[in-house]
Structure formats: C-alpha cells, structure tokens
Amino acid sequence: MSRFRSTALPLAAALMLAGPAFAQAPDAPPPPEAHGKHHPMPPQPARLSVSGSGQAVAQPDIATITLGVSSQAPTAAEAMSKTAAQQQKVIETLKAEGVEARDIQTSGLNLAAQMDYPENQAPKLVGYVAQNSVSLRVRDIAKLGEVLDKLVASGANEISGIGFSREDMGAAQDEARAAAVADARHKAELMAEAAGMRLGALRVLSDSPVIEAPQPLLMRAAMDAKAASTPVEAGELTVSAQVSAVFDLLPAGPPPAPGAEAPDAPPPPPPAN
Questions:
Q1: 44 with 246: CB under 8 angstroms?
Q2: Residue 121 covered by a domain
Q3: Does residue 261 lie within any of the structural domains?
Q4: pLDDT in tens, 216-251
Q5: Alpha helices (H) in the chain, listed in sequence order
Q6: Could you give the C-alpha distances from 233 to 59, 157, 162, 189, 236, in angstroms and in order?
C-alpha cells in the first residue's frame, strides 16, 4: 500500500508541472489597426486667385449690310408692287456683283398707311408706304464701296447698318486666350514676390467666353450714283479673352529639387489584415 503512494506522488507532481504547458494558448497575432485611424494631413499651401485678360486683332473679310427699298403709292397694292419691283432689281444687281444667294436674306417687310392731319379736321388717308429690307454679306470687302453705289443706282434708297467680321476667328481667339493666361501668371508672380513668397503649381484655370468687339461703321454714303465710289474702311477686329487662375503660394527661397516637395494628398492607410 505504501509502495503505491510513493509511485503516485511523483506522477501527480509531474502532471501538475506539465499542466500549464498544455493549457497555454499559442502566441496570438497583434490586433489589427483600427479602421479609420487618423493620419495627420500634411500642411496645405496657401492659394492665390488671379484673373488675366488678353487681346488679339484680326483683319475682317466679311461685310454685313442691311439695305432696302421704300416706295409710296396711293394704294397699298401699288406701294407693295412698286417696292417689290425695285427690290427685285436690287437683288439682281447683288447677284451680278458676285453675292451668293446664301448671303442674301429678307430681314424686313412693312406696309403702313400715310395720314394727313390738317388742323381742326379729321385725319385723311393720303397713301401707303411699303418697305422691303434685306441683310447681305459681301465677302470681297475691297469692292464694297462699288457694290453699294450700284445697289443705290438700281433702286436701294435705305442703308440702315453695316458691320465687319471674319469668317474664321479661331487663330485670333487662341492668341487672345494665350495672352490672357500669360497675363494671369504675370500678375500672380508679381503678387507672390510682393508678399515675400514664391509662386507654386497652377491648381485651377478657367476661361470666360471670348468677346469680339463690334466694328463701328466707317462709311460715307454717296447717294448720287455719279459721285466717286463710296469710301469704306474695314479697320481691324478686336478679340478679347478673360481667364481665372488659382496658384499655390510657397515660402520664399529657391525651388526644391524635383521630387523633394511633399505630395498634396496624405499617404494611403495600411491594408487591414
């Protein structure tokens, strides 16, 4: 009996010593970083907003004219008929001078009664006035004065407006926009230097619609067909552009080496385990 006890005690002691080894769990991995952990944002540079303007000039190659015929007659039908006959002669003259049908468009047709208002008497109908107007484009500006004189000789007795334009304004518009961008950068560099800072990267650049200044009329109408050809000066067209720009403002000093500046955006968070 005593021999059984002596054998059991060492066995129990060995089991007690080995128990913690069997019960201990393996090392657990470190807890993953919490989602949404705050990453400090790098300091953002100050910003400078400026506007710029630019202009360019172009030579016009199209003249737009509104002219017409006005006739008076005792009856409305006679006034309309007389006006139509005169206007037909004007249109034939236009085509003979090389103006294409696509460049001739009727722009007005009016018929009005002419009244006489004698003192202390009822108004009296004395006739009718009919008007027929066309808008036309003349693509050979060099012969515009000669064309106008021939139109007047063929029956046109009203010239209400003339303007000049260019069929393709793309090159002038591009030149005006480029000048506006250069003006904006010049202003930004000047303001940054005055503030003791240095101009950084361009962040925003936008433009406004290009404006084409209307060309004023430079014409002396010669209604007498025997006079010298009507002088017409087309002048120049002015195209204006406006832009808005936003630049970074950086501390004064030499610009850093390429790649030395910190990126604007923070680094991405580490992937979750």
A1: no
A2: yes
A3: no
A4: 544 433 334 344 677 777 888 999 999 999 999 999
A5: 2-23, 76-96, 144-153, 170-194
A6: 11, 21, 11, 41, 9
Asked whether residue 71 is domain-assigned, the answer is yes
What is the distance between the alpha carbons of residues 225 and 220, in angstroms, rounded to a whole number? 13
Q: Which residues contact 59 (CB under 8 A, 6 or more apart)?
A: 166, 234, 236, 237
248 and 172 in one domain? yes
The CA distance from 140 to 85, in Å, is 27
In this structure, is residue 132 part of a structural domain?
yes
Q: Is the pTM of this model over 0.85?
A: no
142 with 186, same domain: the answer is no
Q: Which of 165, 180, 199 is the C-terminal boundary of a domain?
A: 165
Give the count of domains, the chain: 2
User: pLDDT (tens digit, 9 = 90+) per residue, 123-170?
Assistant: 999 999 999 999 999 999 988 999 999 999 999 999 988 899 999 999
Phi-psi region of 167 (alpha: psi -120 to 50; beta: other; left: phi over 0): alpha
